[in-house]
Amino acid sequence: MARTKWNDLTDQQKAAIIAAAAVDGGLRLWAGRDLAARNRHEVNGPKWLWAAGLSTINSLGVLPALYLLLGRRRRAADAAAS
Fold first, then answer.
1. Which residues, 6 or more positions from 60, have their beta carbon under 8 angstroms from its beta carbon?
2. Is-contact 50 35, C-beta < 8 A?
3. With 90 as the cut, is the pLDDT of residue 57 above it?
4. Following DSSP, what letter does each residue of 1-69 receive, concatenated?
5. Using one digit for the tens of pLDDT, what is the confidence trace for 10-50?
6. How far apart are CA 80 and CA 33, in angstroms?
7. Which of 6, 21, 29, 51 has the fewest C-beta atoms under 10 angstroms from its C-beta?
8. Angle, CA of 18, 22 and 26, to the nearest 5°
9. What number of other Cβ atoms are within 10 A of residue 32's Cβ?
10. What percent of the chain has pLDDT over 70?
């Protein structure tokens, strides 16, 4: 099976790829900055493992979303406010 070249894609396909990459990049940036700002007691699971996964695994935004939804523990200030 021959690989499709970028120039063979339609404008809609190119736009979808660029949009998906932008969303993935934004989620990775947000998750990475959040992870860096937390200590190890504020993270569910090993912090180093989350960092390694976020920086190496291409997941189309799934892994950063999982971290943001499930990988963080509530901070004491956040818990007291609610």
1. 20, 24
2. yes
3. no
4. -PPPPGGGS-HHHHHHHHHHHHHHHHHHHHHHHHHHHS-GGGBSS-HHHHHHHHHH---TTHHHHHIII
5. 999 999 999 999 999 999 999 999 999 999 999 999 999 99
6. 23
7. 6
8. 175
9. 16
10. 89
